[in-house]
Amino acid sequence: MRYFLRRALHAVFLLFGVSLLTFLFSALTPGNYFDEMRLNPQISQATVAALRAQYQLDRPLPVRYLHWLNAVAHGELGFSFAYNSPVGPILWVRARNTLLLTITAMLLAWLLALPLGVWSASRLGRAPDRILSGTTATLLVIPELVLALGLLILAVRTHWFPTGGLVSVGFESVSPLQKLQDLASHMVLPVTALVLGTLPMLVRHVRASVAEALQAPFLRAAVGHGIPRRKLLYGYALRAAANPLISLFGFSVGTLLSGSLLVEVVMSWPGVGPLLVEAILARDLFVVIGGVLLSMIFLVGGNLLADALLYWADPRIRTAASAK
Amino acid sequence: MTQRRKLTRWLIVLVFLHGVVAAAGFFAPYDPVEQDRERPYLPPMRIHLIDAYGHFHLRPFFYPLRLRKDSFDQYEEDTASAVPLRFFTRGADYRLLRLVPSRLHLFGATVAARVYLLGSDAYGRDQLSRILYGGQVSLLAGLLGAGVTLLLGALIGMAAGYYGGWRDDLLMRAAELFLALPWLYLLFALRAFLPLTVSPLEAFLLVVVVTGMVGWARPARLVRGVVLSVKELDFVRAARGFGASDLYLLRSHILPETANVLLTQAAILVPQFVLAEMTLSFLGLGVPEPMSSWGNLLASLQQYSVLVSYWWMYLPALAIVPFFLGYLGLASALQQRSSAYKIDGESGWSPT
Predict the structure, then answer these.
(1) Digits of tens for pLDDT over chain B (352 positions)?
(2) What's the rounded Cα separation, in Å, for the pair B111 and B127?
(3) DSSP characters for B30-86?
(4) What count of other Cβ atoms lies within 10 Å of the Cβ of residue B233?
(5) Shortest distance, CA A127 to any CA of chain B (angstroms)
(6) Which residues, other chains included, contact B145 with Cβ-Cβ below 8 Å and sequence gap of 6+?
(7) Which terminus of chain B is less hemmed in, N or C, by CB atoms within 10 Å?
(8) Which of A22, A146, A299 comes nearest B182 by C-beta?
(9) A21 and B CB contact within 8 Å
(10) CA dihedral defined by B116, B119, B120, B122, rounded to 10 degrees?
(11) A54 to chain B nearest CA, in Å?
(12) What fold does the segment set A89-241+259-297 form as a domain?
């Protein structure tokens, strides 16, 4: 229990640090959302000053930070200048879209990576392993941006998949089954890009850790006892190799909100990514801070989840934690 | 011995690739900002050896493109007039490595008929030239950014590892903070709070500084680890016993021991920072037009019409793949070497 308390405290400290850091950066900002208005002769300087006062941009930094903390405590995350509404609800809708995309991609990537990695490790150094390793190395050096743009070009040239957005025009008027179909067809491209982006890294990690586990004396003994191959690989080797993989899984969960930014922008998926880019270009301060903070919460949550899973899965950690 | 050979092989590949980009003026047939409004969005031209009548020519040639009848954006080859390629020809002025003025180009065509090996963009600028010159910007941004990061990381890591105590705690907590942040978000957050409209040179420096400040945490942690083990080694303790100052110890005994880690990190960080530059420029937050960089060359693909009709605008994206492959090879060769030397090697291409 103390182990978790310490971890949770650490997480809270991290979140505070990040929010403080983003606020500090914002204090260094030359210019803000209302600067463009100041250049507009049709808007009087008094109006701009009043707007600044209304959003409390004229107050000193510590006051603004405390004010913002208060807003966070009320679940608001500050106020968006561009949308003229609290940041919370705007972010929430976008986050839902992003999660729809990334959870699907994450599950697919892991479901593919585990068998591929185990299979590769069980044939270490032989032809299938070499082919797979070569493929993952090639995929590893192709950045997500390049991958996503390539898929997009493929899609427009073949007309196989829709190339952007969440749903088609007229989505409201079709039957539930067609709705599902429409949504799925829009998800194919971004999900493929995300899966191909993370798969090589996952496969390499699974392969490396399972290959290492297979060297262990108890597994060699298990082979000698004639335990069936499938049970050996998935029952024993994978379990022994789980430790780094669980940390990696926690990382996957942690990046659910932030990992798909580029793909979302390229495929015009209405998630958190495009919102954040727009907010940066428009200097919509609190949307930027809110977005960064929300993704941080996910990251910290993912790490906590990994810790919990490790504690549950690995007896070595349990005894080490209770010994302290 | 094979490890060393592997390392040399990847180094040769990388030196060659960077050499081509560094000497962009020579390999590119045209000036990257020279426009030709008569020829927007020309598709890549084909180089022929056999002409329309089936005759073989020793000198490669191409047919200029003309608009197809009743079309406004479909081109076809004008087989009436073949234009031979000229090698080692004189063309636009440039400065090799920004120093040596020259007019010599690897290849070119006549003044009237321009050759577009990789097509042209919306302003009729040569894509091949823009990719080569853009590589200079992107690679330099990556190299400088990695340099800044490694410098920061080495300084912080050495300070934390050598002095220990509360300084170590403070610096490593800060490092954890930076490691926890997704780097793209960190990049954006940093960029968000810096001026948006700046001159190209300022924008370039901004990109370098922003990317350089993002990644210091991982090298700092690795360097700290090395310093912690090295500072207890006998020869370092002996030097301290002889009255060597902290600065001398850090510079002469500890810094050389971190070289392996720093080199490996450099091979890992450079492509990441090239990618960071590409991402920022792609989204319009980095190097602006008319300067070309690998990122802003791809920016036009955000328009649907370009995506549908002009697939060759995607070619700049493929230019980076051999570079990244080279760096990955170098990084793994360096890692193998340092693990052979039994110096700590936290794996490189891991998440974060």
Answers:
(1) 577 788 888 899 999 999 888 888 888 888 887 787 777 888 888 888 887 787 888 888 888 887 877 777 778 777 778 788 888 888 778 877 777 888 888 888 777 778 888 888 888 888 888 898 888 888 988 899 899 999 999 999 888 888 888 888 888 888 877 776 666 766 776 676 666 666 777 777 877 887 788 788 888 988 888 888 888 888 888 888 888 888 888 888 888 888 888 888 888 889 888 888 888 888 877 777 778 888 888 888 887 777 777 888 888 888 888 899 888 888 888 887 766 554 333 433 333 2
(2) 17
(3) S-TT---TTSTTPPPPPPEEE-TTS-EEEEEEEPPEEEPTT-SS-EEE-TTS-EE-E
(4) 13
(5) 20
(6) B207, B208, B211, B212, B215, B269, B273, B276, B277
(7) N
(8) A299
(9) yes
(10) 160
(11) 21
(12) MetI-like fold (1.10.3720)
End-to-end CA distance of chain A: 11
- Supply B169's token pair: 């705690």
ipTM of the modeled complex: 0.78
Count, residues in chain B: 352
Domain boundaries, chain A: 2-87, 89-241+259-297
> For residues A209 and A249, is the Cβ–Cβ distance under 8 A?
no
User: Choosing among A110, A280, A286, which should be mutated to test the B contact, i.e. which has the most B CBs within 10 A?
Assistant: A280
Residue with structure tokens 């050389």?
B256
On whether the CB atoms of residues A300 and A18 are closer than 8 A, the answer is no
**Is residue B77 classed as helix, strand or coil in its secondary structure?**
strand
User: Measured between beta carbons, which residues in chain A are less than 8 angstroms from residue B351?
Assistant: 201, 248, 251, 255
Terminal-to-terminal C-alpha distance of chain B:
32
